[in-house]
Write a structure and sequence with these properties.
Alpha-Beta Plaits; elongated; 24 helices; mainly alpha; two-stranded antiparallel ribbon
């Protein structure tokens, strides 16, 4: 069974990576690339807190929750790609065996504290849990760090190989395939690389302290599944042939088997990896699994004191978030993807997985992971940075890959009529205004059928007294959709002479989209 479990683990990880690669322009139909993100067991819980209803869009996560009371934390041992990555990392860093890592057992309640705090804060519309969701963490690291670094190294290596005459033909053949299947149109370069890498690297580095340190002591998804698994009916059974060699205790990656009685297993911590049965001497095979009508109970290490500490800490965090000053300058440039829900609702639903950023990097590349301006809720949420990229007029992919519909799946026609913001000219920088020279780059690139940027030829008197005809650009507010291509293409080397603000943006609701679709039908 342990060998089967490893095969399933690898299969889910490969599936996760295949779906990740699939999220690129041009995005084809078939299986949604965000389907595995919806396997998160935390999604149904916090989506219910946000909407007070159960969304069947999240049926994979609901299925995980429904099966856990019967099968235990099988998601952690069989499905979770972050768990599989941690298992691989434990071999690289040579994690200590269970007896040496028992010094950290006092941290067992911490994951339940994090889960309870996340729930309390979510009740007050402060959704920080997405930063700690294991599937979101994995997708975020792939988007910002692993994939860009891999494609950069691969492209450099292939081009270097192609420079050698003996390898030129096969290297270019592989390079052409690489560009067509795996590589985006341009190398992804993102904000927040250092901090995302540091966060993910810290999770991997904790394997040096204990195997599955994140899963044992920190993961709120593991805490939720452990809570549901404490009465599970699929049990580990140790027969009378057990030689009491304690190999199962020593090798358990979750520390779920107590040294005092290896016949038991902590159902809250056990992830159904069947590693203990594999460690059992082959001639003995004392460990089996069976369904039980009267399962034993493993209690959760979460006391009244922990509850009070969690409650007080959560309200303190809520208070700190409430009294922080709002950065008005940053808010004017806080442009979300087209189709994003109103800001408060958007931050309730966004899990910071950056799937939208991933697919945008294969096309217009305007979306970036955000930093903190006024609140931690903004951290690693998608934001449009128009100076580095623009929102492609004929693209609506970000809404198609959002697993929570924080970005609504607009049709292409709806997206083209949903302004993200409004462009403004900085007349101190814009070339026609500042230097009295013609520059029509923004007007040429404006993608709307009836140009939202138009030119107004006027005679102007130069400092030397001569008269010159200059084409001055201006923005037609009713036509501008805030796509930002004008800001991206502005030929100035530093700050652009035109920029997009949140003014005029439309943040639709689900009802708006339904109403619009019904009207068009």
């Amino acid at each position: 069974m342990a060998r089967t479990r490893r095969g399933v683990q690898v299969a889910f990880l490969v599936f996760f990576l295949v779906l990740f690669v699939k999220a690129r322009y041009p995005y084809t139909g078939g299986l949604p690339s965000d389907i595995l993100l919806r396997f998160s067991p935390l999604l149904p819980l916090f989506n219910f807190i946000a909407d007070l209803k159960i969304s069947m869009l999240l049926w994979p996560g609901l299925a995980i929750l429904a099966l856990t009371p019967f099968l235990g934390r099988f998601f952690c041992g069989w499905i979770c790609p972050l768990g599989t990555t941690l298992d691989a990392a434990s071999h690289l860093v040579k994690s200590p065996q269970n007896p040496q890592s028992q010094r950290w057992t006092k941290l067992h309640p911490l994951k339940f504290v994090l889960l309870a705090a996340s729930v309390l804060l979510a009740v007050f519309s402060v959704h920080i849990w997405g930063l700690l969701d294991p599937l979101s963490i994995m997708n975020r690291a792939l988007t910002v760090v692993i994939y860009p670094l891999t494609t950069l190294v691969a492209e450099f290596s292939l081009l270097k190989a192609a420079s050698l005459p003996v390898l030129e033909t096969p290297a270019y053949a592989v390079y052409d395939w690489f560009k067509a299947v795996l590589m985006p149109e341009q190398q992804a370069r993102l904000q927040q690389v250092f901090w995302v890498a540091l966060f993910f690297g810290a999770i991997l580095g904790l394997e040096k302290l204990s195997r599955r340190f994140w899963c044992r002591y920190l993961c709120p998804a593991g805490a939720l599944l452990g809570f549901l698994a404490q009465f599970r009916v699929f049990e580990r059974v140790v027969g009378p042939a057990c030689p009491d060699c304690a190999k199962c205790y020593q090798g358990c990656k979750m520390g779920a088997i107590p040294e005092a009685d290896v016949g038991l297993a902590d159902k809250v911590e056990c992830i159904e990896c069947f590693g203990c049965s594999e460690m059992c001497p082959p001639k003995v095979s004392a460990i089996t699994y069976r369904w039980s009508r009267k399962p034993y109970h493993s209690s959760i290490d979460y006391s009244r004191r922990h509850f009070l500490q969690t409650t007080l800490g959560s309200f303190a965090a809520l208070g700190l978030l409430s009294i922080g000053i709002r950065n008005k300058d940053a808010n004017t440039r806080l442009i979300r993807p087209p189709g994003s829900l109103p800001e408060n609702k958007f931050l309730d639903k966004c899990i910071h997985c950056l799937e939208c950023v991933r697919i945008c990097q294969s096309n217009g590349a305007c979306l970036q992971p955000d930093g903190i301006h006024s609140s931690i809720l903004e951290l690693w949420a998608p934001v449009a940075v128009m100076r580095t990229g623009y929102c492609e007029y004929n693209c609506n992919l970000c809404g198609q890959v959002c697993p929570t519909e924080a970005i609504l799946p607009l049709s292409l026609e709806q997206k083209q009529h949903t302004p993200m913001g409004l462009a403004y000219f900085d007349k101190d920088l814009c070339i026609p205004f500042a230097k009295s020279e013609d520059c029509i780059v923004c007007e040429e690139h404006c993608p709307t059928p009836d140009k939202a940027i138009k030119l107004d030829p006027k005679e102007t008197i130069l400092p030397d007294g001569t008269v010159k005809l200059v084409k001055y650009p201006y923005v037609v507010e009713e036509l501008c959709i805030g796509c930002g291509i004008c800001e991206t293409k502005c030929p100035l080397t530093g700050t652009a002479g035109i920029f997009v603000t949140t003014e005029n943006q439309i943040r639709p609701t689900s009802q708006d989209i339904i109403g619009s679709s019904a009207a068009s039908a």
